[in-house]
Each structure stands twice: as C-alpha cells, then as structure tokens.
Amino acid sequence: MTRPLVLADAETARDVLTFSGRAAQAGADGVRIQASDGVLVLTSAALAPQSLFDQTPTILAMRIVRADPELSCDLVVDELTAGDVPAELLLPDTARAPAWAGVAPPRGGWQQVGVLPATIVADRAQWGISAVAHGSPDGAGEDAVRALRARIWGEADEDLQGLPRGVAFAAHAFGFLGSAGPAGQVIAAEQVRVTESGRWTRLAFSRGHVLSRGPAVRGLTAVRQTGPSAG
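Predicted structure:
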C-alpha cells in the first residue's frame, strides 16, 4: 500500500469513507483526493460524458474536510478502505486518470447569482430518478440507458434556475440534501447558495458542494440545408 491518508480524527475518516462509498453507488469514475495545508478536498463526477457525442453534463460533487497538515497529495482512486488507526485510510496500489479529473473548477471569482430551496432540489432529483426508471424498458441496452440518462439529467430545469437537472441528482446521490422522509421529501430544508465563476456554477450545501460546468442541454440545433441556393 502507498502512504495512508491521515485525517484529523476518526469521525473525519468515517466522513471520507462515506463520500467514497456514495461515489461508488452513484457509478462515479473514482474520487479525486487533493490535500495540502491541513485541508483535504474530495471530488467525484456524479455525471460526466463518456464519449465525444455524449450529451451528459459534467457535474461534480465536492466535500472538504480537515487532514494532517503534513499530508500533501493529488490523485484519483477507485476506493478507500479503513486503516488500522481510526484516523487513517488506506489508498489502493494504483491511481486513476479519468477525463473528468482534468477539468477543474476555478478556485476564485465566485459570485452569488441566486438561492435555491433544498426542497426544490430534492423534488427535481426524485422526478428525474422516476423518469429514468420509467423510461428504461426491460432489456434496454447500455447505450440506450446512457442516452436516456443524458437527456433527463442534462436537460435545463427552470425550477433549478435553468441548471441541468443533474445537479439535483448529484445532491441526492452524495447525501447533501439532509434528512428525508419516507417519500423522499427533505425534512431539514436549507436555502442553497448558487454562485458562478466563468463556465462553472456551484450549489453550496451545508454538507458539500455540487458544481456544474457549461450550459445545460436545451435541445438539438436545427438542421440547415447545404448546397447551392435555389434560383
């Protein structure tokens, strides 16, 4: 094993393991671990395009925790496991290099552009989950399911201030929405700050951040005829 991750305490280590586990459940392609100056930033792609023509937006989930001030690293791993010491986690033998990890959000320049109730985010997440489930017939191929997910989660949602619906999926999948009732409704609601910097938009929950890159999918561009004009 490589050098272990040394966190601030056992509770923080459990927090990081929870984030890693949620990333795996969401089908994310690894977790990026960036540590310096006593701060550990965990990032994972809740959604990301898999090919050139894939319309899935790039939507990242982020959690920031305390770490050992001596720890310094920047790598992407498939998983993390508990170590022998409660405040330590073990890294796998090899790191990853997924495409989404090469697209980093800016560190500064964020300006607030709005506020979203967490209840609205939760509602749009549940709507999208239901739409994907009901839109995927038995026996549907992987490509068909991926295209459906790209359409549902990549579509601009006016209830989310025009952001792709996938930001709601990310908040749900990574547990940023707080306590929920039996029907999925948020009990402990919060007002979520929405900020922008360049092409990125960030939803700042008390439990983490969701970042979306670029505009949401708003439909295909109209096909134009080519060739010599008539007459």
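Summary: The two ends are 73 Å apart (CA to CA).
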